[in-house]
Amino acid sequence: MPAIHLEDVSKRYGEVVALSRFHMAAHENSITGFVGPNGAGKSTTLRIITGLTRPDSGTATVLGENPYDNVSVKRRLGFVSEHDDLYSWATVRSSVRQLARINLPWPSNIDTAVDRAIEDVGMTKFAKRKISALSKGMKQRTKIAAALAHSPSLLILDEPLSGLDPLGRRHIMNLLKDLNKNRGVTILISSHILEELEQIADRITLIHRGQSVAEGDPEGIRRLLYQFPHEVMFQSRPEDAKAIASGLVELQEIVRSISFAQIDNGLTECRVVTPQPEQFCDELVRIAVERHASVLHLDTLSESVEKLFEYLIS
Amino acid sequence: MTSEDTDETYVRKFGFRPFTGVRLGRLYRIMSVAWFNLIESIRRSGFTKFLLVIMIFNLIIQDVVIIVLARFVPLEFLGVTLDELFRGAYTDSVLGMVSISNRITTTNVGWTSILGLSSAGTSFLWLLLLSVVGGGLIADDKLHRTTETYFSRITRLEYVLGKLLSLLLFSAFVLTFPAMLQYVLLCMGLGVGFLNNIGLVFWAIGFTLLAAIALSMIILSLSSLTKRRSLASLTLFIVVVLMSSLPSAFGLWYLSEPVLLLIDFVGCIALLGAMTLGFSYVTVNGSQIMFYNGLGLEGYMVVSVVALIFLFGLVIMFTTILRGDK
Fold first, then answer.
1. What is the CB neighbour count within 10 angstroms for residue A41?
2. Distance, CA of A120 to CA of A175 (rounded, Å)
3. In 3D, which of B252, B155, B269, B176 has the Cα closest to residue B218?
4. What is the pLDDT of residue B261?
5. In angstroms, what separates the C-alpha of A214 from chain B's closest C-alpha?
6. Which of A31, A157, A243, B63 could form a disulfide with A291 if both were Cys (CB 3.0 to 4.6 A apart)?
7. Chain CA centroid to CA B304, Å
């Protein structure tokens, strides 16, 4: 039985349709990634799952129950909001403590629970530090500690990796993996960056304009995305561009189209549409080396999530 | 954890020790919210701590006045029985704790009004403390967007009740407890048995809590309308003081039209307190107010004003907080 099951869920805020017959499922003891561009309906979905808002139509079931304002569900749920929703004047410890106390099972020792949660996220050394003095990553860890302290069976994280440096992201991802693996916590994590979630999620749901556009394991989603025509741009001197272009013509499997343009600084700009940008870049380097040509500037132009989702819908 | 600042250490040492047991009920969750907010409100603000210290000094002075007067004013001189003196002194003192700038006296014994006067400081400090503490209770949550975190753990009703309870606990500490303490001190000072007027203690508890609920609901309502705690605090303080001062500011007109007192909605709670003790008239700032004579300010008007305060508080607080989907 799925820990989270949304069936034909719709939600509208005035004229704005946030969700339209949306469906998704997150299975117990799994990590489900939830990916979509800004404004796709991710936060609305999470608000429905956490019982903060009620769908206009459709069915939402979380841990076997209707989550809206349902304490039975809330008790077993840990929620990490996308906002910096900690009191700036409070310390790490008091922030975790205030929320842990509310739903901590009796007879647990509140101090032990708080200390464990803080230790679990590696914040023991900073437990007495004020929230206002923490970095973004530390705040995220504090929020996760607050969500973990009462031993939830379902952890929901709204964009927990946004704004973190690579090390901070790795910390959080390792933490979530261990939570799922060792404690059996079901995790639903949202992000607008697919690559982040591919590394930890068992399943991924893609949402766009309030509709689920794809659902499956990370490999399946990746295969689907390989069909997406990425646009890569590079700049070279005209003679080098000509040499590279003659080599690119041979790469028919990964090059769909090539266009050239003369730009102001006397260089030639080449735009290539390819479903496999990484492989294309490797090939580009190989060709340039073979033909003693130089690439002065290289960029991927069509990585916008919005374009990707438009492609998936079409 | 010895080196959580290194890359992998804390993850490697990460251990899972889930808690098991019974999740406690609604009352516990409300208490949890109330207690945290109460403690944090006091702990975070130096001004609140300063006001609390002033409040304690004020209460000591207020109690000393009672004991000194009770010791040194001869009973024969006042022309009342000991029991009447006790009841008048205590009632006036407790009413004075709530009535802000208008002094309410229930007896004709002159000096008991001094007790009401001595408790004026308490009423101002209580109002100021409640404004400072209560102003941020919901406004801060809106500012920091903590409401979502709360609502993911408790129901909206529990959240509101938790916030209200934290203010009630605070008022109980700065208002109800001193009122009870005064009873004990006055009994000791006048040599009256503790059980002789025990009903007054229950009245004082009920009355101070009623006043606390009314004012708490208003400050929470204001707090729920803004993200700026200072705005909510200042609004409550200024409005209450203004409403309390306006009747006497009208001078002679007020003496002929005591109905003006109704705009002092906090004072009306004090008048209601006197009515619940069975008084058919009280003296407000030296002017006698009859509750049931069919002229000017009447008892039912006082009840209506207090009911309106509750209605106002309930409507704003619950519509702002309990509306789920925006």
1. 25
2. 8
3. B269
4. 82
5. 28
6. A243
7. 19
Can you read off the two tokens belonging to residue A157? 């994280």
Reference B146, options B40, B239, B57, B75; nearest CA is B40
Contact A13 B326 (CB under 8 A): yes
Q: Which residues contact B83 (CB under 8 A, 6 or more apart)?
A: B192, B196, B197
- Total Cβ atoms within 10 A of residue A238: 12
**pLDDT > 70: percent of chain B:** 82
Establish if B46 touches chain A: CB-CB under 8 angstroms: no
Kindly list the residues from chain B whose CB atom is less than 8 angstroms away from the CB atom of residue A151: 18-20
Tokens of B127: 């109002």
Q: A51, B4: Cβ pair inside 8 Å?
A: no
Shortest Cα–Cα distance, A151 to chain B (Å): 5
Mean pLDDT of chain A: 85
Q: Which residue of A has its CA nearest to B36?
A: A98
Q: Is any Cβ of chain B less than 8 angstroms from the Cβ of A29? A: no
Site of tokens 């000017």? B296
Considering only CB atoms, B155 lies closest to which of A69, A84, A85, namely A69
Q: Which residues pair with A19 in a beta bridge?
A: A11
* Mean pLDDT across B54-65: 80
User: Which residue from A85, A98, A108 is facing B19, i.e. has the nearest CB?
Assistant: A108
Measured CA to CA, the distance from residue B312 to residue B272 in angstroms comes to: 18
**HEC string of A226-256?**
HCCCEEEEEEECHHHHHHHHHHHCCCCCCCC
Decide the pairing of beta strands A268-274 and A230-236. Answer: antiparallel
Residue B141 corresponds to which tokens in the numbers above?
């949550």
Least confident of A3-7, A101-105, A182-186: A101-105
Instruction: Name the amino acid, one letter, at B128.
Output: L
Distance, in angstroms, between A198 CA and closest chain B CA? 20
Distance CA A149, CA A103 (A): 9
Residue of A nearest to B8 (CA): A171
Closest residue in A to B140 (Cα) is: A87
Option in B5, B9, B29 nearest A102 (CB): B29
Q: Is the ipTM of this complex over 0.85?
A: no
